[in-house]
Write a structure and sequence with these properties.
This protein is mainly alpha-helical. The chain contains 18 helices and 2 strands.
Length: 383
């Protein structure tokens, strides 16, 4: 329990620092030194100041030792890849040979950094920078401190295990932010970088088709088709899985026992508990605003794709991580909608509800999904 308090306290400290340095609706950041103030309205300097606020999280992640399901595995990967020339890596990578199967982006990190400890710090910075850049894209309509809190509660502990996937997830979030603003080329580039850290990120190319088209009829037809596919997924999943299995890029996920699909699908609907508590309050309070605004409608649709992803997890629990691709949009979606709530009391009540929900979600994940592999917290000075 002390470790849970430690994690949540560090998250809160970083969020409070973000709140203190945020200068209201303009989204600028301000740091005060006595009577002197540094005001940042540019993206680069804003990210730098945000990283300063996130130093407690960076230290918490970078100074850990021996905790996280794959801590030892990633340390072994570093020992192997650090001294492996690129040509040898490419040859063994094509063969899907153990540690060499990691994607090129992560190989380069292992190759260039001098120690595993430095790699851990590089990992968390690569996680935070794209995530904060995504928040910055919608800074005028968001709540930065709440976005950071949601991201930490949903992804931090998982980042101790699925390091490559969470780095990819941060670039996916950045791609989503660019998609909200109609920056399709930057969106595709962000997804391409994500693929360099985890191949499964390639599936995010499909989300580009959810963007806003100039022709209203095309948008309506696309939305009707989207909701039809979401509703009918349970009846067509066998065919969809068969098609995906034939795509060379995803071949490994259907040839390895750890990723193989079961032929029968369980009838559980427990996965709805990940979605209903998040979306139901917004649908009650902000229903009209969600579907009237093109950004919020797009974010809602991305969030809804958790349904097929979580149902895929009924074939193999490994695939539940794909639901994180859709879930990560909550980092942008919830603050965006809360900012649009005009009644202050309603907005405060909803904000309190979501803070409590994500605290509960974090605790549940640590004890149930993570099975206590990230507690108790241990750092390099532990005896």
């Amino acid at each position: 329990m002390l470790s849970i308090i430690l994690y949540l306290s560090v998250f809160m400290v970083c969020c409070i620092l973000i709140y203190i340095t945020a200068s209201g609706r303009r989204g600028n950041l301000v740091i005060s030194f006595g009577k002197r103030k540094i005001i940042s309205s540019g993206k680069k300097s804003g990210i730098f100041l945000a990283l300063i606020c996130c130093i407690p999280v960076i230290l918490l992640y970078g100074l850990r030792t021996g905790i996280g399901t794959d801590y030892a595995a990633y340390e072994q990967i570093f020992d192997i890849l650090h001294d492996t020339p690129f040509t040898e890596y490419m040859l063994l990578h094509r063969e899907g040979n153990g540690a060499y199967y990691v994607e090129a982006g992560y190989y380069l990190l292992n190759r260039l950094l001098p120690s595993y400890r430095m790699l851990l710090f590089a990992d968390i910075i690569l996680i935070l920078v794209p995530a904060w850049t995504a928040v910055w894209e919608l800074k005028e309509n968001g709540i930065p401190q709440l976005s950071l809190f949601i991201y930490m509660c949903t992804q931090f502990v998982f980042a101790m295990n699925g390091v490559r996937f969470v780095i990819a997830l941060s670039f996916i979030l950045l791609g989503f932010a660019f998609l909200m603003n109609g920056k399709y080329i930057k969106c595709m580039l962000s997804i391409a970088v994500a693929v360099m850290f985890h191949t499964s990120a390639a599936i995010c190319i499909l989300f580009v088709f959810l963007g806003h088209f100039r022709q209203r009829k095309i948008n309506i037809a696309r939305d009707v088709l989207f909701y039809f596919l979401i509703i009918t997924f349970a009846y067509s999943n066998q065919s969809i899985v068969f098609i995906i299995s034939k795509i060379p890029l995803f071949h490994r996920y259907f040839t390895k026992d750890a990723y193989s699909f079961s032929n029968s699908m369980a009838g559980s609907i427990v996965w709805m508990l990940h979605i209903v508590p998040v979306l139901l309050p917004l649908l009650i309070v902000c229903r009209n605003k969600i579907f009237r605004d093109s950004r919020s409608r797009l974010m809602f649709q991305i969030c809804m794709t958790q349904i097929p992803f979580r149902m895929m997890g009924l074939y193999n629990t490994w695939f539940t991580r794909l639901a994180r691709i859709s879930q990560v949009i909550e980092v942008l979606f919830l603050p965006y909608m809360l900012r649009a709530v005009e009644n202050k009391n309603t907005r405060r009540l909803l904000t309190f509800y979501y803070v409590m929900w994500y605290i509960f979600y974090f605790c549940y994940y640590v004890f149930v999904n993570d099975q206590g592999d990230s507690i108790p917290y241990r750092w390099i000075l532990s005896r």
